[in-house]
């Protein structure tokens, strides 16, 4: 198994640490290439602006659960701080500069967890000031190694953005505050993996050594005052990623070739050229959800827990490891949402919202609010409840939940980022023009707004960097930092709900007339389609499942691997597609009108 934990911190409660903008963008870009089955094929987990205790626990979980042959990648982006003894600490969102040992994440702790882990294949990427101060002492595990082990690589490779005496620079050339979209170090890592340029020896594989050589050369070229370093001990070649095959010619040639292929009606080959795969083996598109299974129950919203171990569907909470019921829920067509730590399940009902403990499944709090949309903020401190026209917020404070201002009116659609403090709304307040607005869920302050001509539904990417706006004719994807268009998908939306859903930061699911379409945003091509009718949709955070349901049929789970469905039987008959259902309803109306009274 290949597992990556990506940790980014860009806002801090202690004013001694200046705010950063790069980490949030960094982690989204890196996640996209690491999770790509054709490049990194990692199962990725992302933490953005989390407290130090949670960061320490998740890092320990990462290494404690890794198996002997698992490859583990840890990435940290944010402020790195030295104490008076010169020891490196990573700053979390609640770290105090005067209490680094107890409120920060000591680099020494990370080193010890790596050493105690069973995994003998570890890659650490550090993008922070003084990251070169990461403790030495890495060594390969186990006894003698044979030729196969030397080929695969064993041990730990550490690549840092700077030496122990340097700051890690961001795009504007400062080491304190970023105004650009990505740090130099992480930007080079992402570009090297995405394009295959980090495969310096051209063998189709990017090893830890390849990656360091590429990063060192290009970072030094861009910022001569920043020198990436490499540490650790590795036996053989530790495979970080597969390199997409690059065609001859520069990027301008590839873009021109892709445009020509697109004009000739060959979008698949156009996508291959843009991915750098033309003239060679095609880069695999995102893996399809090929195996459908039917669950008990009828209709209702669906929601996965943050660790993907639970699925709330119809009147049941399912354990996705065994596909046995973990709990029963009231049977009604109302939304559900798990808190980011997985400790709470919010269930909307006809009278209000019930907050239930996932440990005992009893109600711990009742909120008098009606909702057709529920989502916790990325840190779990805010619960967003929406019903047509009205948006209300509930804030966790002193062990209870309280209504929090403001309460928006005239809101048509809403979505909350899963891994960043971002909330997006579409609305037309007080007879003003239609617009999309972006808010910070930590401060509830308006960040930006953008006028719209039309939009019926919306989805916000996990990192909050992209917003997808669907209308009856197309879905447009915009960057939230400057509202620049990223992609326009000419696929008509079937219904207002569900709106577009980001599977990850580079894959978008759109409910179209002929089913659920998944689009690869970097290439602007449709990866595949699930011919299924639906009113509710969710994807498991680990990428293994898609869950759908409609008002008239049972909920379904689509899996990428048959083994993940366990005892559930495969149901080969797909549900009726939206286009067929619309046609059926139209035919029934015609027949009913023709009947004699």
TrEMBL record:
GO molecular function: cysteine-type endopeptidase activity
A Pfam family that the UniProt record links to this protein: Peptidase_C14
GO terms, biological process: proteolysis
Listed transmembrane segments: none
Residue ranges occupied by any Peptidase C14 caspase domain in the UniProt entry: 2-220
This protein's name: Peptidase C14 caspase domain-containing protein
């Amino acid at each position: 198994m290949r597992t990556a934990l990506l940790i980014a911190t860009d806002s801090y409660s202690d004013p001694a640490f200046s705010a950063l903008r790069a980490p949030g963008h960094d982690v989204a870009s890196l996640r996209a290439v690491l999770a790509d089955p054709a490049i990194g094929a990692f199962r990725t987990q992302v933490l953005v602006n989390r407290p130090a205790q949670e960061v320490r626990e998740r890092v320990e979980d990462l290494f404690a659960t890794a198996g002997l042959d698992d490859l583990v990648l840890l990435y940290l982006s944010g402020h790195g701080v030295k104490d008076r003894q010169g020891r490196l600490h990573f700053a979390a969102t609640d770290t105090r500069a005067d209490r680094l040992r107890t409120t920060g994440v000591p680099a020494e702790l990370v080193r010890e967890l790596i050493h105690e882990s069973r995994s003998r294949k570890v890659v650490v990427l550090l993008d922070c000031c003084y990251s070169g101060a990461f403790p030495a002492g890495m060594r390969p595990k186990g006894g003698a190694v044979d030729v196969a082990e030397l080929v695969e690589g064993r041990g730990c490779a550490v690549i840092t953005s700077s030496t122990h005496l340097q700051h890690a620079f961001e795009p504007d050339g400062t080491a304190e505050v970023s105004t650009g979209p990505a740090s130099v170090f992480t930007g080079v890592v992402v570009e090297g993996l995405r394009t295959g340029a980090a495969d310096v020896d051209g063998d189709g594989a990017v090893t830890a050594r390849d990656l360091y050589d590429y990063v060192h050369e290009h970072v030094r070229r861009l910022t001569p005052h920043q020198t990436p370093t490499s540490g650790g001990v590795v036996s053989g070649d530790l495979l970080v990623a597969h390199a997409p095959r690059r065609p001859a010619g520069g990027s301008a040639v590839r873009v021109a070739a892709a445009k020509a292929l697109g004009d000739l009606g060959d979008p698949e080959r156009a996508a291959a050229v843009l991915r750098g795969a033309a003239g060679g083996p095609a880069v695999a598109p995102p893996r399809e959800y090929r195996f459908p299974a039917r669950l008990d129950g009828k209709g209702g919203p669906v929601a996965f827990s943050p660790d993907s171990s639970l699925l709330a569907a119809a009147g049941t909470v399912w354990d996705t490891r065994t596909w046995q019921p973990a709990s029963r829920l009231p049977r009604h067509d109302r939304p559900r949402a798990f808190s980011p730590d997985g400790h709470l399940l919010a269930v909307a009902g006809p009278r209000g919202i019930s907050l239930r403990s996932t440990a005992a499944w009893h109600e711990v709090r009742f909120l008098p609010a009606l909702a057709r949309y529920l989502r916790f903020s990325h840190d779990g401190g805010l619960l967003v409840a929406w019903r047509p026209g009205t948006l209300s917020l509930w804030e966790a404070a002193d062990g209870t939940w309280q209504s929090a201002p403001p309460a928006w009116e005239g809101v048509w659609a809403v979505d909350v980022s899963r891994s960043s403090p971002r909330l997006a709304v579409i609305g037309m307040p007080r007879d003003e023009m239609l617009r999309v607005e972006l808010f910070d869920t930590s401060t509830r302050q308006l960040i930006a707004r953008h006028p719209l001509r039309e939009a019926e539904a919306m989805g916000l990417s996990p990192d909050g960097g992209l917003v997808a706006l669907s209308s009856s004719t197309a879905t447009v994807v915009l960057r939230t930092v400057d509202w620049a268009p990223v992609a326009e998908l000419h696929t008509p939306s079937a219904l207002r709900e569900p709106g577009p859903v980001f599977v990850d930061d580079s894959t978008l699911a759109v409910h179209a007339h002929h089913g659920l379409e998944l689009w690869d945003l970097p290439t602007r091509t449709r990866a595949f389609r699930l011919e299924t009718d639906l009113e509710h949709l969710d994807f498991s955070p680990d990428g293994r499942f898609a869950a759908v349901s409609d008002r008239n049929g049972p909920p379904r789970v689509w899996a990428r691997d048959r083994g993940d469905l366990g005892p559930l039987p495969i149901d080969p008959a797909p549900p009726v597609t939206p286009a067929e259902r619309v046609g059926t309803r139209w035919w029934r109306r015609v027949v009913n009108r023709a009947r004699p009274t």
